[in-house]
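User: I'm writing a short methods note and want a consistent example. For AEC family transporter, I'll paste the sequence; you return only the C-alpha cells, no commentary, since I'll be parsing the reply automatically.
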Amino acid sequence: MSGFNDQFLYSIFIIALGYILKRSNIIKEDDGEGLSRIIFNLTLPALILVTFNDITIEYSLFMLILIAFVYGLFSAVLGILIFRNQSKNAKGMLSMMVPGFNIGLFAYPLVEGIWGREGIQHFGMFDVGNSFIVFGVCYFIGSYYAGEGARLDVKTMFIKMSKSIPLMTYIVVLILNLAGFKLPTLMIETADIISLANMPLSLLLLGIYLNFTFDKKYIKLIFKYMAVKYVVGIVVGVGLFILLPFDDMFKYTVLIGLILPTSMSVLPYAVEFNYDKRFVGTVSNITIITSFILIWIIANFVI
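Assistant:
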C-alpha cells in the first residue's frame, strides 16, 4: 500500500511544481500547448511502442475496447437526454464533455507508477475504444449543436482519428504484435529512453493547466455535469467490477477507467466550435481533481 501512496505523493508534487512554475510566470499556460504536442506525438507513442511490442496479448483484453466504446455511446446519449432542456449551445458543450476520458495525459502516469507495464497494457486497450468516442462521437456532438451541420460520416470520423498519433501507434503495434513481427531492438531501446519522460511531462502539464478560478454562474451547471459524469460512472464501474469474470487488473481498469477526467480534446473542440472555453477549462480542472481523489480512495480501500 505504501507504493500506491508514494506514487500519488510524487504525482501531487510534480503537478504542484507545474502549477507553481505557471503562477511564478517561469512557464506560461500557453507553453502547455507545445508541451502537450511533445507528449501526445512523441513520449506517449514511445511508451505505447515499448509496452505493446513484445507482450502476449490475451484476447480477453479486446473486451476493454468494447466496454470503453459501448459506455461512451451510452453516456453520450445520456448526456444529450439530461441536458436536453438547456440552450442549444449549452447542450452541445455539456453533452460533448460527458463521454470520453483523459487517459494518455492523466491515467498513464498514475497507472505506470502503480502497476507498471501491465497497467499500461490494460489501459492502452481501454484507450483504443475511448479514442473512437473522443475523436468521433464527442467531435460530432460538439459540431452538430454548434450549428456546423455535421453528421456522423464514417469517412470524416476516420480522417479525424487518423490524425491521432497515439491511436495510430496503438493500432499499428497491435497488428504487428498479433502478426508476430518484432520491431528492431535499436528502435525499441530508443523509444524506451524517450518513454521515460512521459510520466513527469504529463504531470507537469496537468499542473500548468490547473486553474482554480471560475465564474459563480457556472456552479449549477457544474454540479449537474459532475453528477452525470461521476454518479453514472461509479455505478456502472462498480457493477461491472462485481459481475465481470476476469482478473483483478481487468476489473480495476474498468472501475478506474469509468471515473477518469473528461478528455483534453474537448478544449480544442470548444475553441473550434466557439463554446465557452472558460467553462470547459474549469470543468476539466474539476474533473482532474475529482478523479485524482476517487482513484486515491480506490487505491487505499479497494485495491
